[in-house]
Design a protein that fits this description.
Length: about 350
């Protein structure tokens, strides 16, 4: 099927959504997505961030679609023509959706662990307004512990439901979900039960905001002071391929590796994520480049370094020399361990 997005033509398989086709094209035509997650079945259709304008339905029926459509749940038709970045209507709609998502979201980026890698922060940076029209009181909740390693800050939740799908599809017994309706809707475990499963930590990675955070990393460092390195270990529960986030020679956080759309490449187990914080637990492969153009890399990191070099400051971090030294990992050898560390 032929589809044209922002004037760029691409041929895709039947059943492809507009968002998937846009991702194949890449660049600025890719709509933002806060709830769609390609690795989670049934995701999408909730946040409306990915609205696009269909100016021609198909070759068979060229009538434009009267309303903007959610690109993550709208399949392409042969001959369809779509405007994403080129449409003033789309731009206005994204601004409105961003404003809507921020209605109840606290402006606590300065103390939020997700700051710097938050999809909502990035969305606001691109489409947000500098002022709010919302003068009513925001709804608030107490932080909730859901197990020893995960904390829920419901105030920050945008109800994208990715975590619910992740728990459903990666773990045996989901114990949390969306409770209540409308303005009262919230993510909760009801009884503050632990999400007790080896893959439960992945809800942290799929959460687009700072609603679900890693308690082993909380308040340790701003993410832009950490240096991400690809690392692996022999793990009998998951792929063992992760990104370790270092401050000096200390591993402060372990996450799954994320692609250019900020989606996890392969889900990892809780042992790798929460329990392996020694450098000797890992074989460090080399610096991980930031794929997604976001707040964390703006004006700081080269998006596509021509060459990645191990154990050198080149291409990893720009900025003041004294800062580079402070957060470098000079003591960590290129290969710390060639053997199994499971
Ligand atoms: S906690 Fe995070 S992942 Fe779960 S619904 Fe809220 S925003 Fe989405
Ligand atoms: S990403 Fe399409 S509606 Fe949320």
């Amino acid at each position: 099927m032929k589809v044209t997005i922002d004037g760029q033509e691409i041929h895709v398989e039947p059943g492809t959504t507009i968002l998937q086709a846009a991702r194949m094209i890449g660049g600025e035509s890719v709509p933002p997505a806060m709830c769609y997650y390609s690795k989670l079945q049934g995701s999408g259709g909730k946040c409306r961030c990915c609205l696009v304008e269909v100016t021609k339905g198909s070759d068979a029926n060229p009538t434009p679609m009267p309303k903007l459509v959610a690109s993550c749940v709208t399949g392409v038709m042969d001959g369809m023509e779509v405007n994403s970045k080129n449409s003033a209507r789309v731009e206005e709609a994204r601004k409105s959706v961003t404003e809507f998502l921020l209605i109840n979201h606290p402006l606590d980026c300065p103390i939020c662990d997700q700051a710097g890698e938050c999809d909502l922060q990035n969305l606001s940076f691109q489409h947000g307004k500098s002022e709010t029209r919302f003068i009513e009181e925001k709804r608030t909740f107490e932080p909730e512990d859901i197990g020893p390693n995960i904390q829920l800050h419901m105030n920050r939740c945008i109800l994208c439901q990715r975590c619910v799908l992740a728990a459903d599809q990666l773990t045996d017994g989901r114990v949390h979900g969306v409770i209540s309706r409308g303005d009262h809707a919230q993510i909760s475990t009801c009884l503050s039960k632990a999400i007790d499963n080896e893959f439960s930590g992945n809800v942290i990675d799929v959460c687009p905001v700072g609603a679900l955070t890693d308690k082993t990393f909380r308040f340790k460092s701003r993410v832009w002071f950490n240096k991400p390195y690809n690392a692996h270990r022999n793990c009998d529960k998951c792929c063992g391929k992760t990104t370790v986030w270092m401050f000096g020679d200390e591993i402060q956080r372990v996450t799954a590796r994320k692609d250019e759309f900020h989606e996890v490449e392969e889900f990892i187990c809780n042992t790798c994520r929460f329990e392996k914080k020694d450098v000797s637990d890992w074989v460090i492969e080399g610096p991980r480049r930031f794929e997604k153009f976001s707040v964390i890399n703006r004006n700081k990191y080269a998006l596509h370094p021509p060459k990645v070099e191990i154990r050198t400051e080149k291409h990893i971090l720009e900025g003041r020399e004294q800062d580079q030294k402070r957060i470098s990992m000079v003591e960590v050898p290129e290969k710390t361990n060639g053997n199994s560390n499971s």
